[in-house]
Amino acid sequence: MSEAQYHPQTLAIRAGRETSAFGEHSQALFLTSSFTYANAAEAAAMFSGEQDGYTYSRFTNPTVAAFQARLAALEGGERAQATASGMAAIQAVMLTFLKSGDHVVASQSLFGSTTNLLLGLARFGVEVSFVEGASLEAWRAALRPSTRLFFLETPSNPLTEIVDIAAVAALAREAGALSVVDNCFCTPALQRPLALGADLVVHSATKSLDGHGRVLGGAVVGADALIEQVYLHVRTAGPTLSPFNAWVLLSGLETLHVRMAQQCASALELARYLETVPGVERVYYPGLASHPQHALAARQQSGGGAVVSFVVAGGRAAAWSVYDACRLISRTANLGDVKTTITHPASTTHARISAEAREKAGIVEGLLRVAVGLEHVDDLKGDLARGLLK
Ligand SMILES: *Cc1c(COP(=O)(O)O)cnc(C)c1O
């Protein structure tokens, strides 16, 4: 299909479909590890790469290829490489593009496992500088002649700090470094980093791309020449996405835009409500006029996202009491699900960081993070009010 003429909502449903001899209307699931050849000449041509086609599902598979094509269309990238998880995607980028002696500049507010992965690169002679993502000056000051890659995530988790993607990507380009954006929170429904100048987008498809908390998956999206290199790494090293998970993710993508639109609307309403509740000291949500980077968020995202964080007076005891009073909202660290979830970052996702560093970063004891799903927003308000107003 000629994809340039279709809107994203249409691409989410129609892009990347593989045709089949049976004319099935629903997406086919190809559960096969290998593929057969018509004859010896075809086998040889496929192995040498002269002929395109399917040989082995560690390399690629029609269901996985359909997911890759659809996600690439949504992100506005030439090509996508799917992986077994979001961390596999990030690991594949690091192992594809970095070598001993290289230097990475990364935002200090990253998903915890991403930070650990970056720190682990020291064993391979790769140094990492962590900077305050919102400060362009900090990115610039961290540059070295050996800087090879910039890595960022925006909005950040859990405080929804916004990094100016266009500005940081331009700085990376000037320095001859690759810019990589983890677009897990916004998804291409709200934010398209490649159009803002980033070189690569990475995803944890586990979150909003699936949207229903069913499977793990990940992807790297960008220009064909870069993704070819990631592909060669993945087909050799093997962090491949399973066809079954790709099939689940394809159906998740079909509802991405309606889910994100409703989740953003509910999150904004919940954030506005929380601002009126006595005992709530601060609400973090990019869609609120009170967010310090509201204008930048409005420029770079087409919605505030589904994550709302807030600080209750009374520290850990008060936060735990709101958390424990939830009957509807799920007490789990996951996000991007149609089921709303609540997290107490200081005692879970950010517990490994020293208390002092945590406070400095704003992950205070009274902080709670809610990843808004698709329940009616009044029911979500009621669930939080039970703990907040008692
Ligand atoms: C969950 C998450 C990841 C890791 O993804 P997995 O699929 O769990 O491996 C990476 N980045 C962000 C922002 C995430 O939320």
Quick overview:
This protein has 15 helices and twelve strands. The protein is of the alpha/beta class and 390 residues long. It folds into two domains: 3-254, Type I PLP-dependent aspartate aminotransferase-like (Major domain) (Aspartate Aminotransferase, domain 2, 3-Layer(aba) Sandwich); 257-388, Aspartate Aminotransferase, domain 1 (Alpha-Beta Complex), CATH 3.90.1150.
Taken from the alpha-carbon principal axes, the silhouette is: globular
Q: Could you give me the name of the CATH homologous superfamily of the largest domain?
A: Type I PLP-dependent aspartate aminotransferase-like (Major domain)
Rg calc: 22 Å
Q: Major sheet, described briefly? A: 7 strands, mixed
Strand content: 5-15%
Order of adjacent strands in the largest pleated sheet: 1-7-6-5-4-2-3
The end-to-end distance, rounded to whole angstroms, is 57 Å
CATH architectural arrangement of the largest domain: 3-Layer(aba) Sandwich
Number of domains: 2
The proportion of residues forming helix, as a percent range, comes to 25-40%
Listed once per kind, the bound small molecules are: pyridoxal-5'-phosphate
Which residues sit in consecutive blocks of at least 5 with pLDDT less than 50?
A: none
Question: What fold name goes in the CATH topology slot of the largest domain?
Answer: Aspartate Aminotransferase, domain 2
Function: Catalyzes the formation of L-homocysteine from O-succinyl-L-homoserine (OSHS) and hydrogen sulfide.
Keywords: Amino-acid biosynthesis, Methionine biosynthesis, Pyridoxal phosphate, Transferase
Catalytic activity: O-succinyl-L-homoserine + hydrogen sulfide = L-homocysteine + succinate
Modified residues (N6-(pyridoxal phosphate)lysine): 207
